[in-house]
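Encode chain A's predicted structure.
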Amino acid sequence: MIIVYISIAIVVLSLVYLGYIAVNNLKETKKSLTDLSETAARFQEKVDKINDETNQLTETTSTISNGIQTKKETVQSVIETAKASPEPFKKLFSSIKNTPNPQRETSDSQLTEIGDKLIDLWGRYRVKRKTNEAE
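Encoded structure for chain A:
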């Protein structure tokens, strides 16, 4: 009969040890699950921040793209206008060139007179210098 009592005691001790191990495993599992949940929450926060930054970057890229497109259209319209402009400018310049300028004519005659006076003055200076050298 002792063998039966010893067997029952071993079974009871085994069940108590099994309960102890199960409780310890449950505590460790809860701790691990809590850590895993916290890690998942931090990971989700980082993913949310990345998504927000991605959305901001997309908006900024779109704004820059629209600005570039607007500026491109403006430059193209200026270029088209500039390409169409030479003919009217050529006509304007040719009409300006063909228009008589009374001030220019008078200044040309004045320049001729001044030039003649300078030549006469130079000639007199040379004559005076030669006479001074001869004396």
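The chain has a mean pLDDT of 84.
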